[in-house]
Amino acid sequence: MLSAAHDILSRQRASGNQSHVDPDPAPTTHNSSSRFDCNSVSTAPPGSRQWALLRRKLYPGRLFSFRGDQPVCYFFLLTSPEPQDPGGEEEAETSARQPLIGSEAPEAKPASSPNLSLWERWTVFKGLLWYIVPLVLVYFAEYFINQGLFELLFFRNTSLTHAQQYRWYQMLYQAGVFVSRSSLRCCQIRFTWVLALLQCFNLAFLLADVWLNFLPSIYLVFLIILYEGLLGGAAYVNTFHNIALEMSDEHREFAMAAACISDTLGISLSGLLALPLHDFLCHLS
């Protein structure tokens, strides 16, 4: 949905077939009074008003809420699994207890999810802030770029259309994330604060280019966005790797779960700011 946001927002739905998307239909009218070639609704992260509009375009006549859909689907659309044979379940459980190799007893593992007190959880969480805050900043900066600035980084001196440029931005970002998330064996980064600062610099640099339009070629933006993806993926994988190494066995599971709020918080904050910024820039003459 994020990568196809520009296409969905800027295209008319094909008549007679609500599920068909024409690969190259005529785009809708953009904000002609603006110096930017932008849609009236931004492509900022999900959970905000533009995704309600996207859903209404894709599924006309249906009612959607902002947060009440990914429960209605669970309780009313998904079908319940068939009841299993109790005998078969017991047999599967018995076979699962059999050792796969040899008859040696497996090594005893320490309890990984003890009942932590509220004070222990708070103490662990405070220690995680050294990792959580940089990851929040990384996700805030990269999603602000991806869904707040990508559509505004439009180059007219190239053979690529606006939609094609947006797709290339998204593809290069995802490629950078894929490479860096797969690079932990080759390169481990202890101080993720450095990655957060570099990502914030990317945001400031691209925001300045949107405002001043000083970059001469789209290929420079391609390199910056690939670099942005590398920073984002590296920050994610190294954050959880460092937490797994430094936390004790009894605190590790809670710490890993608590750190998962970082990406959600960063994306939500970026959406809150990307929407008004996009509207402001699109109304500039």
Automatic annotation (TrEMBL):
Keywords: Lysosome, Membrane, Transmembrane, Transmembrane helix, Transport
Membrane topology category: Multi-pass membrane protein
Listed Pfam families: CLN3 (PF02487)
Bilayer-crossing regions: 128-146, 191-212, 218-237
SUPFAM superfamilies, alphabetized: MFS general substrate transporter
Transmembrane helix recorded as keyword: yes
Segments of this protein annotated with the region Disordered: 1-47, 83-113
InterPro entries for this protein: Battenin_disease_Cln3, MFS_trans_sf
Biological processes, Gene Ontology terms: lysosomal lumen acidification
Subcellular location: Endomembrane system; Lysosome membrane
Transmembrane helix as UniProt keyword: yes
Top-level taxon of the source organism: Eukaryota
Gene Ontology annotations for the cellular component aspect, listed alphabetically: endomembrane system; lysosomal membrane
Bias kind Polar residues: ranges: 28-45
Homology family: Belongs to the battenin family.
The protein, known as: Battenin
Lineage: Eukaryota, Metazoa, Chordata, Craniata, Vertebrata
